[in-house]
Design the sequence.
């Protein structure tokens, strides 16, 4: 049994927060408290304690909320990850033992990834901040790098997939490798790593945990979709180098959505640390996660999309 008992979850009704919550709730030893923004429209589960804080997560409001808590798990939305500097400061001041940042991506400690878009940049800086704090002994941390979620990607027209239109967009030759983990394995990996705390298997303290069910290319992804649906897609190709220039200029001019195109580019080109097998040791087996095949995951994602 984990030495962690009291768990705070931020962003509990989000794409990954809801899956993390389901995994946490399977553990009867955890007492879960949710933190929600004042302007949130989410309906929180009535059987759990929810505490409302101001939208910007002010440190002074969070300190009393975090007191007596062992772990803060953050599943907040991409564009707000820099708010975590204030949240981490509150966790340290309140004596929280372990912080799990909103990460769930690629190797954001890479300078080239940080230079590609603001979200990779801010996530990388948050990791650097946590590393420094852990070195001075005031808090532990761990983060999950899981590559892409195919179900989320399909629902959000990501990775070149436009399922409804039977259209697929390749970045360059479509041969860049990127790792994928299901939402469920990402969440279960997080929970299993927490459960190891305080045991002789506590191997994930102060580390970025690399998860991958498999690494694929865009070409392999399209082949799987066409094989499972039994239809042919129309394809297009974009040049990643000019696309990056165009989107970075658009973001600089105020186009917020352009950041998501740059995030996507970070994965599909294979150039920015999204092929996790190349970046570090994959922990799926050590964390006891079930194996998933590409076809099984694509089929489930198509079902969730409602197009199979
Ligand atoms: N690997 C992948 O394929 C993948 C895909 C998508 C996202 N991600 C990553 O996973 C993490 C979570 O992303 P997500 O898509 O799950 O998040 P999301 O669903 O967009 O949002 C999660 C929660 O963030 C909270 N939040 C905090 N500040 C907010 C703001 N200014 N506007 C809106 N919501 C705000 C909200 O909680 P309350 O309403 O309860 O306050 C919201 O429910 C991010 O780090 C993201 O980059 C990874
Ligand atoms: C992640 O990127 C950093 C910076 O480029 C690199 O030093 C490190 O080896 C990469 N992988 C891991 C497992 O940290």
Sequence:
């Amino acid at each position: 049994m984990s030495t962690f008992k009291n768990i705070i979850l931020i962003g509990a009704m989000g794409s990954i927060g809801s899956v993390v919550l389901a995994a946490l709730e399977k553990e009867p030893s955890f007492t879960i408290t949710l933190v929600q923004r004042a302007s949130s429209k989410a309906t929180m589960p009535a059987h759990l304690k929810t505490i409302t804080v101001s939208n910007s997560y002010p440190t002074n409001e969070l300190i009393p909320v975090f007191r007596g808590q062992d772990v803060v798990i953050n599943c907040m939305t991409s564009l707000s990850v820099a708010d975590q500097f204030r949240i981490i400061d509150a966790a340290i001041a309140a004596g929280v033992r372990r912080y799990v940042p909103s990460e769930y991506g690629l190797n954001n400690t890479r300078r080239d990834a940080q230079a590609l878009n603001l979200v990779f940049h801010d996530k990388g800086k948050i990791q650097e901040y946590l590393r420094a704090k852990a070195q001075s002994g005031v808090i532990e941390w761990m983060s999950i790098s899981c590559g892409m979620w195919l179900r989320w990607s399909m629902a959000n027209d990501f990775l070149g997939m436009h399922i409804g239109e039977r259209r697929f967009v390749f970045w360059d030759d479509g041969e860049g490798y990127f790792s994928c983990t299901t939402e469920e394995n990402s969440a279960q990996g997080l929970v299993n790593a927490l459960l190891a705390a305080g045991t002789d298997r506590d191997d994930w303290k102060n580390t970025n945990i690399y998860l991958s069910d498999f690494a694929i290319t865009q070409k392999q992804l399209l082949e799987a979709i066409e094989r499972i649906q039994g239809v042919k897609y129309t394809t297009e190709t974009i040049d990643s180098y000019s696309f990056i220039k165009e989107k970075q200029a658009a973001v600089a001019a105020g186009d917020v959505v352009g950041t998501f195109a740059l995030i996507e580019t970070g994965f599909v080109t294979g150039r920015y640390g999204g092929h996790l097998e190349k970046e570090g040791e994959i922990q799926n087996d050590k964390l006891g996660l079930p194996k998933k095949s590409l076809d099984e995951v694509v089929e489930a994602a198509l079902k969730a999309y409602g197009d199979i």
Notes: The CA atoms of residues 225 and 298 lie 7 Å apart. Residues 107, 109-110, 273, 279-280 surround 2-acetamido-2-deoxy-beta-D-glucopyranose (ligand 2) (CB under 6 Å). The chain is about 40% helix and 15% strand.
